[in-house]
Specification:
Blueprint lengths: L2 E4 H5 L1 H5 L1 H11 L2 E5 L7 E4 L2 H9 L7 H5 L12 H9 L10 H12 L2 H25 L4 H6 L1 H11 L3 H8 L5
Parallel strand pairs: 1-2
Antiparallel strand pairs: 2-3
Helix pairs in contact: 8-10, 10-11
């Protein structure tokens, strides 16, 4: 049985303080959950179970491609009020937001670059970035694991590999945080 939640539920202070309890409740009571008004672009379904997620990802009736849903004739962004949403959706085409075969093609390109040998070669630099991030939170005396470490570490390393200024990469990547 699906439970209806809103983006406000996901962003509530209680959820941020203890997301584990929130997601545990969803896993137990509503493993398939509809979230309305997701980032102002309409709703989306969230599944919290591994088996359900695998089944959905393998089922071609489902999509992670926002263009297919929101830019369709009856999609949210089809009316004039959502012109900004249409521009945003059209611009954001990357490995996280496309379906096969585009996803497969992009993944293949990345797998050629991110080989175990390449990652091992990057180890000293990754350690340096890790140390800098941890030093910064140590000075503050507190840490949010996601926003202070898990998010900036890969963004910093990958943007430097690609030659993208960190301020630009961080701004783009912040759109992928959920």
């Amino acid at each position: 049985m699906a439970e209806h939640i809103t983006t406000s539920d996901l962003l509530a202070q209680e959820t941020k303080r203890n997301p584990y309890a929130f997601y545990a409740r969803l896993r137990e009571q509503a493993p398939l959950t509809y979230v309305s008004n997701l980032q102002g672009l309409g709703g989306a379904w969230i599944t919290t179970g591994y088996d359900d997620a695998v089944a959905i990802l393998r089922d071609t009736r489902f999509t992670q491609d926002a263009q297919k849903v929101l830019l369709s004739d009856d999609g949210l962004a089809s009316n004039a009020e959502n012109a900004a949403a249409r521009r945003l959706i059209a611009w954001r085409r990357d490995m996280l937001t496309v379906d096969p075969p585009d996803h497969t093609r992009l993944r293949g390109l990345f797998s050629k670059v991110f080989t175990p040998r390449m990652i091992e070669h990057l180890r000293p630099h990754i350690q340096q970035v890790t140390d800098e991030l941890l030093d910064a939170v140590q000075e503050r005396g507190e840490m949010d694991l996601i926003s202070d470490f898990a998010f900036p570490l890969p963004i910093t390393v990958i943007s430097e590999m690609l030659g993208i200024p960190l301020r630009i990469a961080s701004r783009y990547a912040s759109g992928h945080r959920a």
